[in-house]
């Protein structure tokens, strides 16, 4: 009898009715659905020892990373180091998908 070492397949649906931050799966990597109303922002913060992928699905977001601000449009994807200050600010009702993976360094 052989043992299976394959990870269980999980499935989630991105829900446009999400309010704020919704964790889509338990465990690693952390996968978050972020919903911000126009004018809403998240204060500068860090995610130490994480590599982050930020995919803007809809809306418009000014994403401040350290001293740089990127204006994102739907479909834009940014990968960055979570050790720096991060602050997304929605300039329109927005929805993003974030993946926070343990840093490989």
UniProtKB/TrEMBL annotation:
Mind telling me which InterPro entries this protein's record contains? Cupin_2, RmlC-like_jellyroll, RmlC_Cupin_sf
Q: State where composition is biased (Basic and acidic residues).
A: 8-24
Annotated ranges, domain Cupin type-2: 35-97
Q: Please, which domain of life does this record's source organism belong to?
A: Archaea
Gene3D superfamilies per record? Jelly Rolls
Pfam families, per the entry = Cupin_2
Where do the segments described as Disordered lie? 1-24
Q: What is this protein called?
A: Cupin domain-containing protein
Q: Which organism is it from?
A: Haloarcula marismortui (strain ATCC 43049 / DSM 3752 / JCM 8966 / VKM B-1809) (Halobacterium marismortui)
Upper taxonomic lineage: Archaea, Methanobacteriati, Methanobacteriota, Stenosarchaea group, Halobacteria
